[in-house]
Design brief:
mainly alpha, about 50% helix
Length: about 190
Amino acid sequence: MFNKIYSENRLFDPNDEGYGDWFKSTQEKPQNTKLFSKSFNSSVFNTVFNEEKNTHYNDSREIIEYKDPSAQETSIDYSNIGQDKIKDFTSRNNSNMNFSDLKKAYNNPYLVDSRNVETRDYNSVNRLKSERSKISFQMTEEEQQRRNTMNERLAAEEEFRRGRVREQDKLIEEHYNRMNHMFLERF
């Protein structure tokens, strides 16, 4: 009886949302064509994979969202009070278990275009420190304006979050009073 009452009267939690309904409702999966002949080896695999990937990226006109650097997340599990709906379920950086968001991985199996990744090899920590010491940055007026706009947006988002917290607190209080009254009447 308790479980029935609980399931009928539980409150919304953004972590309860997920892609279950989306995943069930996706159209019939495309039929995989046979890519490999009987003479399969790693060279054949790499060739076919690179051709497939290059075809995807040549046809792709995706917008890349630029994000300013942010503080590294902690390894302590936490949830944000006043959390809005979660749009990306990718694990946090310092999580014990690393995983990608299902919807992103399902819709884009080629996560990074390796042709556009520039890598540098450092022989020592001193060489890395030396290169980093040469970095200097002075914001242009346009960059400063962009930073101010972003700060205003972040302040507005924080105000919306605080509003959600106030509403959630009110809902919890009303829910508690309703449940308390119901249990006192029944038991």
